[in-house]
Amino acid sequence: MRLRDEVRDAVRAAGPAGGAAAPAASSARDGGRTGVGGTTSDLTIDETLLLHSAGWEPVDLVYGVSWWSIPWGVWQWSTGEVQEATAAFAGAVDQAAKLLRQECEKAGGSGVLGVEIGIRVSSHHVAIELSGTAVRRTQGTRPTFEFISDLSARDFVLLTRAGWWPLGLAAGASFVVAPRRTARQWAAQQGQNTELPNLTEALYLARERAMERMQRSGAAMKAEGIVAVKLREGRASSGVRVMQFVAIGTGVHLRTGEHRSIAPTMVVALDELVRQFDVKSLRSASTQ
Amino acid sequence: MTNAPSGDDKVPQAGQTVVPAGGPLPEGLPPDANRRLAELEDRPGHKGMFTSDLSVNEFLLIKEVGFHPLGFVMGSSIYHIGIQTRRWSQSQELSKLTGAMYEARQLAMDRMDAEATELGADGVVGVRLDVNYYEWGSDTAEFIAVGTAVKSEDGRSYRNRQGKPFTSDLSGQDFWVLMQTGHVPLGLVMGTCVYHIAHRGVGQTLRSAGRNVELPNFTQALYEARELAMTRMQDEANELGASGIVGVRLEEKTHMWGDHTIEFLSLGTAVVKSDGDHTIPQPQTIISLDG
């Protein structure tokens, strides 16, 4: 936070000497805050239009970044779940979301949409980077902070039309060291078609725990549900046998008390791309 | 496991796929799974919530046809895939491997079913089946099934004739369209076949060199493998009393076996026409203006 303000001040100070482009850019960046000039957002024209139709407008691009350290040696000496890494992840997510919220409030927004979530886990730290577009109501009183969501502006408009509102990002992670098979198990399983119960159970539990933590973080914000959950999993870069499971979604609740039908109609789009037979493809195949 | 193949001539049959939930993991679902699912449910003094990997579109469309999402459910199985000798010059099904690939997926799906049943679901939509390979496990693969458990809001039961929640790999959009046409899903059906395709002999290679000819042994082998996979899928659908299978996909993968051994997997959603007359709404035609 402080860093970004310092950078901005530095750019502004360097303005007159640094050429015409810098002051122009910085005053445009400032526009959302002071109410003069334009806004900055990474929304497309369509999305901006859609937001306006729902009574919202973009204000500024906002960021929240947090790095948490992981004590040395936990990856090498842990068996089962790596608690330290899990705790660092939770801390980093909370902190990054807090910073994102601060930036949003400072920019005069009441919510952040289209949040992109960058997760980096290395041997010594967990880094969470959140970036999104702060939005506010076009009419109304002073903005109060309402939500952070990784939903797109399109999804947001659709969701609110049905009476549901986003509350915040619900996230949970777990890091687990895949257990080894004993020599006897290994020998007995060679050439066999068989399930490996200890591995299955370890990964199953790790996945369940990531989802459970996500649920709890949703419950903490009094969400009635979590939509668009993404389960990211794979090998952590901190070790060959370390697997990471991350579940992230947007917590939502019914604000109107009742779900409203969106009454979809069935359409046939006439401009679908037609796959045509390409004679050239034959020729290139035969000459190879 | 009742469907474990015991010999070379035993390949999984549709009737054998009904496995009591749980599999070789002791006492059904792991305790963490039960705890997580319990947190989702409404109890006196505890407000439940739903989780779902459906997009907002899909979520709203599921609500539109009268279902409410209950929770994100999953099942997985890490499986050691054995070896089976194959003869260089013979096209044949490798029934042991077929059985392994089938059983591993079935284990994952059964556990997903068990989680959905635990939540009291009528069905699971948006099911995805994946296979992961890890560096630390040679010859092992993780089979995983994930989906969103849903329950009908009008109290009508949509469970299939085996008393289990229906499963379907249709997206929320497809599910909505399916319901508009008066069909209900019964279950995700699959058939698989691991097949070894014979290498060509020297004589055959020489005879066809420089000529345009069909290679009957290759054609025959691929044809047969696909037919076997699709037939097994259809058998499963018949078992469920389906009137059809929609959204069928045929996947071909060599996994870890090299060029000449291929797994053919066919997957689809078995459906049946629901009672009552349905008029399919006339779709509106649109031309969108984006480039």
Terminal CA distance of chain A reads: 58 Å
Order of helices and strands of chain A: HHHEHEHEEEHEHEHEEEH
Please compute the radius of gyration of chain A using only Cα atoms. Answer: 24 Å
Strand content of chain A: 25-35%
Shape of chain B: globular
Would you state the CATH class of chain B? Alpha Beta
CATH topology of chain A: Translation Initiation Factor IF3
Number of domains of chain B: 1
Work out the helix count of chain A: 9
Q: For the largest beta sheet of chain A, what order do the strands appear in spatially?
A: 1-4-3-5
The CATH topology of chain B: Translation Initiation Factor IF3
Biggest interface, CB < 8 A? A-B, 59 and 65 residues
User: What is the makeup of the main sheet of chain B?
Assistant: 4 strands, mixed
Q: In the CATH classification, which architecture of chain A applies?
A: 2-Layer Sandwich
How would you describe this structure to a colleague?
The complex is a heterodimer of chains A (288) and B (291). By secondary structure, chain A is of the alpha+beta class. Chain A has a single domain (35-183, 195-258), classed as Translation Initiation Factor IF3, CATH 3.30.110. Chain A is built from nine helices and ten strands. Chain A has helices at 2-14, 21-34, 45-53, 74-77, 83-107, 153-161, 183-189, 197-220, 279-287, and strands spanning 56-69, 80-81, 111-121, 125-137, 147-148, 164-177, 194-195, 225-235, 242-254, 267-269. A four-stranded mixed beta sheet of chain A has the order 1-4-3-5. A four-stranded antiparallel beta sheet of chain A has the order 2-6-9-8. Chain A is globular. Mean pLDDT of chain A is 81; it is low at 16-37 and 284-288. Chain B is of the alpha+beta class and 291 residues long. Chain B has one domain (28-206, 213-273): Hypothetical protein apc22750. Chain B (Translation Initiation Factor IF3). Chain B is built from six helices and ten strands; from the N terminus they run αβαββαβββαβααβββ. Chain B has helices at 31-40, 56-64, 95-118, 172-180, 202-208, 216-239; strands at residues 50-51, 67-80, 92-93, 123-132, 140-152, 166-167, 183-196, 244-253, 261-273, 284-286. Chain B has a four-stranded mixed beta sheet with strand order 2-5-4-6. In chain B, strands 3-7-9-8 form a four-stranded antiparallel beta sheet. In chain B, a hairpin with a 7-residue loop joins strand 8 (244-253) and strand 9 (261-273). In chain B, helix 2 packs parallel to helix 4 (172-180). Chain B is globular and about 75 Å long. Chain B starts with 30 loop residues before the first helix and ends in a 5-residue tail after the last strand. Residues 1-27 of chain B have low confidence and may be disordered. Chains A and B meet through helix 6, strand 7, helix 8, strand 8 and strand 9 of A and helix 1, strand 1, helix 2, strand 2 and helix 3 of B.
